[in-house]
Amino acid sequence: MSTATEGTELDSQITRLTNGAAAWASMGLNQRIDLLARTHSAIAANAEAWAESAIRAKGVPAGPLEGEEWMSGPYATLLGVQGIIDSLKKLAAGKSPLTGARAKSAPGGRVAFKVLPSNLYEFNLFNGFSAELWLAPGKSEASARANAGLGAKRLGENGGVGLVLGAGNISAIGPLDVLYELIAYNRVSVLKLNPTFAPLTDAYQRALAPLIDADLLAIVNGGAEVGSYLTGHAGISHVHITGSAQTHDAIVWGPGAAKTGEPKLDKPISSELGGVSPTIVIPGEWSEADLRFQAEHVATQRLHNGGHNCIATQQLILSADWPQKNRFLNVLREVLAEIPARDPWYPGTERKLSAAERSYPAAEHINGRLLVEVSDQTSTDLCATEYFGPVLGYTAVPGSGADFFANAVEFANTKLDGSLGATIIVAPADRKALGSRFDELLAELRYGTIGVNVWSGIGFLLPTLAWGAYPGNTLEAVGSGIGVVHNCHLVEGAERNIAYGPFRPFPRSFQHGELSLSPKPPWFVTNKRAKEITQALTDFAAAPSPVKLPGIFNQAFRG
Question: What superfamily in CATH does domain 277-500 come from?
Fold first, then answer.
């Protein structure tokens, strides 16, 4: 700590929260629903201030990219809070939070629940998209429905005070982590903001005021010394971190310490830590429009948020035998050159870009981005190092059809660091040709969230999915982390999430003035109406109404 005064203030906050944890334990479901409903309203009322604070903190260029801060900030948080409210209402009515979610069989004796779309609004807003939550092998549908609820079914439980070490890249992460701690574990939180997000403090405090006023949340700022003081505090019972594996290991074992023996940290820790995410492109015969759309898709996966995402695609896996491989890479180069340059804003990015340049002296420099070929003749640093910036690698493995897919899955599982998310791009005819083998290989891909024709990062946006690494990591080998968040159905035993999207929104399109009948998803970095679309979506999430849908669609078809 820099001063004794800071320590005293933190001690006071922990004492306040300790009392709040006891008050939360005494609340019934209807009281909790009312509190979260007021929180939802406060987030809606302060959504603009929240998004604008994030825009200023990151120096986001004026225009469409501002939409990223609406979507990954207040919009995502509103969806998460409403998803939890819906589950608590079901529990209060004597139902399972999974009521309404259809179950089906998945490969390997698994059960999958379809969690998107779950209502008519989602059917329209996410038209063409769907998502499933897969249980671990051996978990039954009946037990999942009966046990869904987690801490919300354990009324009276006092989970104490936890520390949430917030991320500094996506502004919804900290608030959503706090929400999950409260609902799933009956644990109140000290949310320590990453210094990057210190400018959001006032917006956060206003948006989350109902939780703060109820002594369920404290928001604090500070550097490593504040984090160290809190992780070692006797009044903190648990730590949750979103960040890097290096930061996690320094907290658990000590800076530079061996990961053996008794951990330095004397309390449990959960985590979401990122890694090197792949996108697997299954070869097919694509039109020029297909090549262009998917090149924009891949560019988005790398360049969203300036490339500063733990779930950003860093390794593109192509077929060495795909006749269109070089054409696709050329279109990707064109797209990277056309997208306006953006200065890296996340601290340390320049250092990581320099490291990538040293490892790959032949890397292509395209408008401030690095495009890197990874092969048997190059360094493999890109497979093991999360650059957290605008560095995109590509590699080629042999085969076509199922043979290629199997080789790509093997490469992703064994050569790349981490297991947070993976994306697969496949044309409908090629997926059909794979038959049941497609789902079998999908089940072999060991990642927490898999996107099929949709960036796996969109899984973060969907509160019905259990966001986190593929299970099995340990403190000694933490990979992409331990545990899940979001999971608004409060499901036990989730193994992974699968999100599905259209190969292209409309296979045939035409342009008429500003109106295009092949709209790009609002998260695409090439969507020219992203700001207007995401503002409209946030307004809808604040107060859903069918009269708002035409306005959203009007903006979407202009993107």
Answer: Aldehyde Dehydrogenase; Chain A, domain 2 (3.40.309.10)
